[in-house]
Amino acid sequence: MSGFFSRLKQGLARSTQKLNAALTHRHLDEAALEELEEALIAADLGPAVAGRVIDGFRKSRFGKDVTPAEIQEALAAEIARVLEPVAIPFEPDFTHKPHVCLVVGVNGVGKTTTIGKMARWFGGQGKSVVMVAGDTFRAAAVEQLQVWGERTNAPVIAGKPGADPAGLAFEGIKRAREQGADIVFIDTAGRLHNKGALMEELAKIIRVIRKFDETAPHSVLLVLDATTGQNALEQVRVFREMVSVTGLIVTKLDGSARGGIVVALAEATGLPVHLVGVGEQVEDLRAFSAAEYARGLVG
Ligand code: GDP
């Protein structure tokens, strides 16, 4: 059993208490299917996907006597089908020197933590990383990133609270170029309550980094917190109005009662789900795997 599976399974098990209750059925009649559908909706798959999964299931198994294990297997296969197209690894294009990765998302979703984890991830692959503490609005975010920098041995470009994030991004890329770094992660503020200001801030960061490289940012990762459930869908919509999001990272799947949100996200957005966060430690980042996730979700 891989680390991804065991860690994630503990979190996802909470999503599926209802599903486990529904799995006692042995004869798949309409009532049993309805109960399963409700359980999937409760796990945050959303009505559309839950309906599709159950429809697929109805076609293949309706009226049959099935064991709970068979139900689990068939449900996992249906869910994996939805997830497969979006389970795309995060493979930065390192022909850019440096690859510039902008990390966006609402406050508290885990942006800063995820940047620290990615610094370790790519550092471990022999890549040299620079981090930019661009969430200058939240003093703690700057300190937090500095701690991650010490842990991962990667330089952190930071300013005083309230410093201009675009200026820091500029410094970060300059530094990365000077030292021949492979990738720069730019942390950003997540003040969604002040959408206009945030939009301007992100636009300015992008303008400034394009002075170095007009193809930058080369990736824009939107971080989402699985525990916010369906709200994550709205966050994707709002952030896509502001920036060209290239992929998603879903955090807090270790404690989530709503792991199904990843399935809803896959269906609604079609955006790649690159990585998932399964804890607060530096190693708690996993590549997203459709089959393993689907299997974890159905228990
Ligand atoms: P930011 O405001 O988006 O930069 O969010 P932070 O990186 O500061 O994270 C907010 C909180 O979420 C912190 O307490 C993190 O330790 C925690 N956190 C981040 N990712 C995960 C995760 O995958 N699992 C758990 N359980 N907590 C996480």
Automatic annotation (TrEMBL):
Which compartments does it reside in?
Answer: Cell inner membrane; Cell membrane; Cytoplasm
Any idea what this protein is called? Answer: Signal recognition particle receptor FtsY
The reply to whether Repeat figures as a keyword in the UniProt entry is no
Cite the binding residues for GTP: 105-112, 187-191, 251-254
Family membership: Belongs to the GTP-binding SRP family. FtsY subfamily.
Its gene name is ftsY
Q: Which Pfam families match?
A: SRP54, SRP54_N
Q: What class of enzyme is it?
A: hydrolase
What's the EC number here? 3.6.5.4
A single GO BP annotation from the record? cell division
A GO CC term? Answer: plasma membrane
> Membrane topology for this entry?
Peripheral membrane protein
